[in-house]
Specification:
The structure is a single chain. Strands 1-2-9-4-7 form a 5-stranded antiparallel β-sheet. Helix 5 (about 180-190) packs across helix 9 and helix 7 packs across helix 8 (about 220-230). The chain has about 260 residues and is an alpha+beta fold. Helix content is about 45%, strand content about 20%. It has 2 domains: about 30-175, Jelly Rolls (Sandwich); about 180-255, Winged helix-like DNA-binding domain superfamily/Winged helix DNA-binding domain (Arc Repressor Mutant, subunit A, Orthogonal Bundle), CATH 1.10.10. The protein has 9 helices and 11 strands.
């Protein structure tokens, strides 16, 4: 039998638990939602706008997940069960090393994560971390594979994606293996000066350590070479931001290594 005294004692505890539960599920709703393509807020800029209507794929419920800055989105060595499509945000893709990481590339809105698993090994051979708040659409791997065989427009889009990423990998190998320090950093700055990165205000989120891991050199070398480039009016440093002033000279440094 519950007495009045017991009620006074336990009521604040149960109230506190209730509030915590409500807050937890409210937060979960904010960071994990289920949507189909027909009622999705991200549809106007999504790849589905460029393919013909496919009711099976469009009606499929997909998980929309929000990651805070610094959160790990995928972990190297884990199994690929879903293909991730970045609807909004900025993230770095990197290989983890014993002493330092190597950033392979930076992804922005409308990029995919995990496509290489469609017809190959279903393992992530890289990790990915959000550079700022990032939203991804998590799509069943088999659904993407089926769409690829059914839709020519999507096949062409993925072919273009593969070609672009193949060229990025070749450039990365050249940068790490053959270029000297100045050439490596110059190549990284040229890579980050692409229109899609500048539109995302990339240098507000990239640290000097990130620049080092993109270039395959030490952070101290990045700081020193940036200062040299700044003194030679090749770039202009504004706090974290890097503004390229002489693109042609930077290209020459990158080519000569």
């Amino acid at each position: 039998m519950i007495t009045k005294k017991m009620l006074y004692f336990y009521w604040p505890i149960y109230s506190f638990r209730f509030i915590l539960t409500e807050l937890f599920f409210t937060e979960m709703d904010r960071y994990l939602t289920k949507k189909d393509c027909n009622n999705c807020y991200a549809r106007p800029g999504c790849f589905v706008q460029r393919i013909k209507q496919n009711d099976e794929f469009f009606n499929l419920k997909k998980s929309h997940i929000t990651y805070r800055k610094g959160e790990t989105i995928v972990k190297e060595g884990t199994r690929v069960t879903e293909i991730l499509y970045v609807t909004e945000g900025l993230l770095k893709v990197y290989i983890e090393g014993p002493e330092r990481n190597i950033i392979i590339k930076v992804l922005t809105s409308h990029d995919f994560i995990g496509l290489t698993s469609l017809f190959g090994d279903d393992t992530f051979y890289f990790s990915a971390t959000a550079l700022k708040e990032t939203r991804v659409c998590s799509i069943d791997r088999q659904a993407i594979k089926s769409l690829l065989t059914q839709c020519c427009e999507f096949s062409r889009e993925l072919s273009s994606w593969y070609c672009e990423n193949y060229n990025i990998m070749l450039t990365k190998c050249l940068n790490l293996g053959l270029r000297q320090l100045h050439g490596k950093l110059a190549n990284t700055l040229l890579y980050l000066s692409r229109e899609k990165f500048m539109a995302a205000d990339i240098f507000s989120y990239i640290t000097r350590k990130d620049l080092a891991e993109l270039s395959g050199i030490a952070t101290e070398s990045v700081v020193r070479i940036l200062s040299e480039f700044n003194n030679e009016n090749i770039i202009e440093l504004k706090g974290k931001r890097v503004e390229i002033k002489d693109m042609e000279r930077l290209k020459i440094i990158s080519q000569k290594g």
